[in-house]
Amino acid sequence: MGLAVLLGAAAAVFLPCLTALPLIRGEAMFALIPKEMLDAGNWLTPTLNGVPYLDKPPLLYWLTAVSYQIFGVSEWAARVPNLLCALGEIWFTCLIGAYVLNRRAAWLGGFILFTSVGFFSQHLIIYLDHLISLSLVASLYCFLRWRERFAIRWASLFYLCLTAGFLSKGLVGLVFPVLICSIFAVYPRRPGTLALFFSPWGWAVFLLLVTPWLAAMEINHPGFLRHYFVNEQIMRFLGQRQPMDINSFSLPGFWLLFGIWLLPWTPLLPEALYRFWREAAAGPAPGPSRLILIWPAVILGFFTLSSSRIEYYSLPALPALSLVLGWRLQRLVESQRDRSLSGALLLLAVAGVLITVCLPYLENLFAANRRECIGLFELIQPVARRFLLVIPPLAALGALAGRRRPSRGLAVYGILAVAMLFFTFKSYSAISPLVSDKIPGEYIRSFAGPDDLVIMESIEEFEYGASLAFYADRRILLVKRGELPQFPYPVPAEQNYLIPPNLLKELWRGPHRVFILADEVLQLEAYLSRAPVQVAFTGKRLLVNRNPQLAENPLRE
After folding, report:
1. Sheet of 477-479: strands edge to edge?
2. Which residue in 3, 102, 183, 504 is deepest, having the highest Cβ count within 10 Å?
3. Does residue 265 fall inside a structural domain?
4. For residue 517, is it within any domain?
5. Distance from first CA to last CA of the chain, Å, rounded?
6. Measured between alpha carbons, how far is 461 from 471 in angstroms, rounded to an integer?
7. Structural domain includes residue 529
8. Peptide bond into 433 cis (omega under 30)
């Protein structure tokens, strides 16, 4: 009953938020590709803006295409898999917690996962990593159940989870669960545990499900396997992927964001990990709870060693750490003398002030990775001021209430966590015009004719043009200045939508009407900088070379 209530509350919070936000540049490709697959009737080859997209496996595209067929093509239908992944991760986290710990700690762990800033905020955005997280937590649960009985159904489900992980994001979807379970199986040793990883029929099922897609892609696109496994998997890990269009977060930046993702529960984590290791995992015969420590260590250790780090890569570690925190909260509530909860709330009050003060630094951190984040601080300032008036005082109140009655402190902590979700959503709403191209896309969709050209000025990655293409509902052109954007594989000339600056100038002065979307931070060439701005809004401007009627009534945000 408690798990059903938790899942219902999560769905009630996520669903309206998922429908209220536009698709940002970083996620829109996962909405546009399934749309193009449906339009072309081709479920094998993903295409992005009409060009085959060979970087990622197809499972998310297929799931989104099914969602489109059921609900129609829309931004919220594209996020239906997000909602299902979020609920699935909470569910399996609670199942593992109930199996390894107890029901109360499991419920608290599920609540902590749902209310952590990173889990909530990143599940508002479409990423492949949500499927990775779901397949990982599901595979670990199946492994624990198989270890208990050696039942074939759990082994079969384990390999199906491996298949889903591989078809979600490639080798990491396979390596993470196998590595975590293998390390756990080595000690404490139990006869037959490692046999799961050497099952001929299990790997046969895995290969039977993934090989047809790999073979068909290589046949239709020679060189796909080398690009997919070498460039996109191995060279990405080493930081040598071509083209070099991804700005990785520094190691301190990655860990700083990981601490932010666990808010408001981060202040409890160091002591919770120490006590969990001492009391639940360290002993003469450590049990399955040891898996909960190995799990985040593998994920975070992998990306610490990797030269490619994006802020959401740490998401698969959150369920395990949420269970550790849930276990610790249960102990705190049961104890009447432990003051750790009050101390954590006081730290949270200080952290709330520091985060507000350090927002310009956080903008610089994200802007170094994505240009469209320039100007983020100015948009978030009004939300930050309200945050400062609510969160630190509420945390201080919880610290005071929890000194004598930890249960009261925990109640305030829970209210505070839900309040932080509200401010997180309001922050995303505030910056959405900056990081999304919905406004200019819908404007173009309303006013552009079939022969008009839509061009996006220089961006770092060609994938970032998907937001404009999705909302404009047409193929667009991108200006290539210097080396970027650049395709990582050969593209036929008739499909290539990357144009040089000299062709942009020719088209601008040609017979067709041309819409050009440019970010405010770009220095435009003289002939464009003198053009009248037809649409101006947060961080962007839309230029049109000829349209007297629109020029008389420019639209400004």
Report:
1. 498-499, 477-479, 453-456, 514-519, 540-544, 533-537, 555-556
2. 504
3. no
4. yes
5. 47
6. 18
7. yes
8. no
| Cβ(254)–Cβ(311) below 8 Å | yes
- What is the pLDDT at residue 554? 45
Residue with tokens 């610089």: 364
The sign of the torsion formed by the CA atoms of 182, 184, 189, 192 equals negative
How many whole angstroms separate alpha carbon 258 and alpha carbon 268? 14
Shortest CA distance to 226 belongs to which of 488, 485, 49, 47? 488
222 Cβ contact list (under 8 Å, min separation 6): none
Distance CA 123, CA 86 (A): 7
Distance CA(116)–CA(94), nearest Å, equals 15
Q: Where are the alpha helices (DSSP H) in 239-284?
A: 251-261, 269-276
pLDDT at position 68, please? 97
DSSP 3-state of 555 = strand
Find where tokens 């996109």 sit: 232
Residue 349 placed within a domain: no
Average pLDDT along the chain, 557 residues, taken 10 residues at a time? 90 91 92 96 93 93 96 94 96 95 93 95 92 96 89 90 94 93 78 79 92 95 92 84 77 89 93 86 65 94 88 92 94 77 86 81 74 77 88 88 80 91 92 89 91 89 92 94 86 90 91 90 83 79 74 45
Structural domain count, the chain: 1
What is the reported pLDDT for 13?
94
pTM: 0.92
> What's the domain range around 458?
438-556
Q: Any bridge partners for residue 556, and if so which? A: 536
Contact assessment for residue 136 and residue 177, using Cβ atoms and an 8 Å cutoff: yes
Burial class (CB in 10 A: 0-12, 13-18, 19+), 237: middle
How much is the pLDDT for 295? 95
β-strand 51-52 against 453-456: which pairing, if any? Answer: unpaired
